[in-house]
Design brief:
The protein has 83 residues and is mainly alpha-helical. It is 57% helix and 0% strand. It is extended. It starts with a helix and ends in a 25-residue tail after the last helix. 0% of the residues are buried. The chain is built from 2 helices and no strands.
Length: 83
Amino acid sequence: MGEFLVIHKAIALSHAYQCLIYLLMDIEPQKSMTGREYAIALLLSNTAMAVLALLLLMFQSLLPLNPSDLGIPTWDILPIRQD
């Protein structure tokens, strides 16, 4: 019974965060997206994630929890196949 209560609270909390994000970003959840809007949203979110991944790799040496003290990866470490 206690596990159900924890899951119920987690769902309620996530719904509250979702409503807050919708409010801050002026999103109407009842409104349907067109195919064009969906494609643009998909491209923008994927571009944002790619930029975030690139920034994480570029500033990897400055970030905490880097026990190996890894630096910025170079492009020449990729193996080139000579077929």
